[in-house]
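wait is this the right file?? whatever heres the structure
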């Protein structure tokens, strides 16, 4: 998985480091939202996940970075809120799968274009997803990034 010369099933430090960076993004984003409200973390929360996807994770598994980062954020943010409703309890998992599917070709795209669109990619994708998500009454406006920027620790 890490290289063609590594025996199957061997420990892969790059994979472990990539998963850790993606999980760090989840933690940073959760801490940026209420009730924690360390809002400056919102501005850097996606960075570890994107570094994981583009530079750390093995290329074949780079799509895992967004699944872990975004899905982990929604699990941390919504965990325990929707008890008794199985669909809403599984929402972070569905979001992780959607993020993974949407980011599958990102690394190849950025390599092919010489990272020309790399800086714009994250904000444009996040804004587009937020716009579509805002139209869904089930999830409404839960977890909008702008809320984190407006909140203050209480």
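ok assuming it is, sequence goes like this
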């Amino acid at each position: 998985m890490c290289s063609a010369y590594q025996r199957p099933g061997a420990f892969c430090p790059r994979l472990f480091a990539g998963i850790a960076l993606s999980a760090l993004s989840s933690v940073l984003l959760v801490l940026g939202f209420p009730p924690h409200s360390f809002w400056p973390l919102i501005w850097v929360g996606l960075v570890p996940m994107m570094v994981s996807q583009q530079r750390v994770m093995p290329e074949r598994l780079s799509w895992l970075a967004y699944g872990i980062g975004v899905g982990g954020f929604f699990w941390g943010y919504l965990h325990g809120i929707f008890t008794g409703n199985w669909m809403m309890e599984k929402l972070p998992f569905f979001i992780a799968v959607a993020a993974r599917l949407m980011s599958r070709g990102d690394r190849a795209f950025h390599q092919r274009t010489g990272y020309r669109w790399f800086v714009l990619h994250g904000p444009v994708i996040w804004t587009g997803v937020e716009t579509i998500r805002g139209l869904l009454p089930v999830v409404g406006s839960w977890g909008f990034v702008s809320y984190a920027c407006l909140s203050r620790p209480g």
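The CA atoms of residues 22 and 49 lie 4 Å apart. so i think its the right one actually
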